[in-house]
Each structure stands twice: as C-alpha cells, then as structure tokens.
Amino acid sequence: MTTVPGTTPYPWPWHGRFDPVRLALLAVACPHPADRGQVVDPGHPVEVLAGQVRGAGGLIISVRVRPPGWPPAPPAEAPPRRPDQVVHAAGWDGFHGSDLDSVLRAAGRDLLLLAGCCLELGVHSTMRAANDRGYECLLVEDACGSAAPDLRQGALSTIEMSGGIFGAVGSRSAVATLMERS
Fold first, then answer.
1. CATH code that applies to domain 20-181
2. Reduced DSSP (H G I as helix, E B as strand, rest coil) percent helix, strand, coil of the chain, to 5
3. Pfam families in the record, alphabetically (predicted)?
4. Quick check: 141 and 171 in contact, CB under 8 A?
C-alpha cells in the first residue's frame, strides 16, 4: 500500500494505490481586490507544493473561482506561477461553469490535492464538488489560506466528518514524504 502518512480520517488515497500519473494539484484562487498585481513568492506553500507535484509527474491546475457579480481576477493573482492549465469557474465551486471535470478526465487524473485560498470558500466548495464527481480528494491543510480564521477548524471538521465524507486532510510535509517514495 502506498498512502500519504498521517492523513485523517483515513489513509489517503483510500484504496492505497498512490500513482503520480493519476495526480493533480488544484490550486484554488479566490479573487480579492487587494490581490491585483501581487507578486508570487517562490517560497509560498502552494508554489512549493506545485513544484513537488510537478517533479513527481503530477498535473498542476490553477482554478480561478469567481462568484457571480465579482470582477474578473488578474492573471498574477495567486500561485502557482506556472500551472499546466488554468480553469475559470463561474462560482465558488471550481467545477461550476468550467471545463475542470473534462480536463481532469482527459488527463486521467482522479487523485486530487486541493490547496489555495480561501479554505472556507473556493477550496472547500471545489473539494465537495470533486468528491461528488468521484475524485479521491486530499486537502493539504497547511497550503490553504483562510478568509476567517475562526471558521478554519469547522471547515476542516466538515471534510473529516462521517469518516471522510468529502475526502481526507493532510500536510505538505506528508505529501512531500510520499512524493519522495514514489
């Protein structure tokens, strides 16, 4: 069995067959007016995670979520700097009004790492939608920013309830450990 060490509430992936050829990192970015023109730090947690995933053979997808009525987000808004694909969604859920599902299926990617901003908004909504579509999801907790820190623990707890109803939760270091073994 090959799983990410220390994930909760179950060893991820649940079937114990990690394969980087089936892996995609969904780096979710929510628009915010203060982000316009932001320069991405190469040491940003999502940027580091993207490098590890790419090095193992995984696909990097920048998912730009935009709820109705929000202005379009600028291209340099958030990591990763060099995604393999950029998908623009029409709502908080990265699958809503986008071609994300067809991109993932065409590439044969069904093991998803989720990271980005904001955990309680775009990341969480995208993870729930991915799970509904049959993807095996791991939220990389320490690669997610929060819109409201007091809601963070509740968002994590929701993912893990009922034995992992929306997937599992893990850390960047645990993912890196698995990438080194693969």
1. 3.40.50.850
2. 35, 25, 40
3. Isochorismatase
4. yes
For residue range 7-54, list pLDDT tens digits in order: 999 999 999 999 999 999 999 986 544 444 455 567 788 988 999 999
Full-model pTM = 0.90
Buried/exposed code over 141-151 (b: 16+ C-beta within 10 A; e: otherwise): bebbbbbeeee
Report residue 1 as tokens.
């069995």
Q: What is the DSSP string of 115-146?
A: EEE-IIIIIHHHHHHHHHTT-EEEEEEEEEE-
Type of residue found at 51: G
At 135-171, the pLDDT tens digits run 999 999 999 988 888 999 999 999 999 999 999 999 9
Report the alpha-carbon distance of residue 161 to residue 143 in Å, rounded: 21
Please count the other Cβ atoms lying within 10 Å of the Cβ belonging to residue 162: 8
